[in-house]
Amino acid sequence: MKGRVVVLGTYRGREAAALVVDGRLEDLLVEAADEVDFAPGAILRGTVDRQMKGQGGVFVRLPGTRGFLRETGGLSSGQQILVQVAGHAEPGKALPVSTRLLFKSRLAIVTPAAPGLNVSRRIRDAEERARLEEIAALAMAGSTSGLILRSAAEGSEAEEIAADIAEMRELAEAVLADVSGAPELLVDAPGPHEEAWRDWSDPAPDEIAEGADAFARHGVEEMIDALLTPVVLLSGSAHMAIEPTRALIAVDVNTGADTSPAAGLKANIAAARELPRQLRLRGLGGQVTVDFAPMPKRDRATLDQQLRAAFKGEAAETSLAGWTPLGNFEIQRKRDRRPLAALLGEGAE
């Protein structure tokens, strides 16, 4: 299966979407509506609870649950505010939310908290950027909100872009005017099919496969099954094991039969290149501790470069904390999805 294929179907009775590039699974979205109160992207009206010293933020009363907000400036107890779900909550903890609302469509993002008109840096042609800036200026005239034109807008018809912006602007203005009242869901998070259409359209897919049996026809079910086991095969006999615990994600890299220093570096580079994809597909975030295969300390700089290159461009916020005194490498990755194994009932979070 060559090219870029978006597969829209179901997996174990849940709406799901898969992005397959040259026969390899690159991204996966599985419906989690019955597992979570509100998914990332949902916009809600909430009420600020009293601030608690030492928490580094404030709790917000939401419909049937509570959120945790780190942006506390100018807030007071009992105040009604609009928030957007920013990630998935750890077990037993409040839902992470933000007051920086984003209204996303396929071509544009309206940003009420960040004024100004911006065009994606991926669009490099000067004439095209000027054309898009003119369209954006006309579509956002009189608005106090900002706008980002996404890379998918490149080459699109002016009428299509303007209509897309107008839809998001209208939604944003309606939501911003609805701050008074009891806690309530105002905008639901997109489902997997909608999110795939919105975020995987650039570059344009070579094929869009749909239907009840789409996952089976394109081999996606087998690809997902491989994600439900801890072991990931690397080059040669090398492999890594990815095992979530309550406190962190433990990753162990092994060279297999070849225990030479050269084999250690080779296995570690392969693991570094593969790790972002595995964390993304498995829906894993939080603290990640990697026990790389033994190698000389002088090779750490080479591995650091490989890690930075591998995680560059990842949608989930990721911090490469670096090496610990015991020789492990620590990474902090935002919890942007529900863990796949927990979602499918295959294991604990």
UniProtKB/TrEMBL annotation:
Domain RNA-binding protein AU-1/Ribonuclease E/G: start-end pairs: 104-208, 212-335
Taxonomy of the source species: Bacteria, Pseudomonadati, Pseudomonadota, Alphaproteobacteria, Rhodobacterales
Swiss-Prot/TrEMBL keywords: Endonuclease, Hydrolase, Magnesium, Metal-binding, Nuclease, RNA-binding
Cofactor(s) this protein cannot do without: Mg(2+)
One Pfam family here: RNase_E_G
Name of the protein: Ribonuclease E/G
Organism: Albidovulum salinarum
Entry keyword annotation includes Magnesium: yes
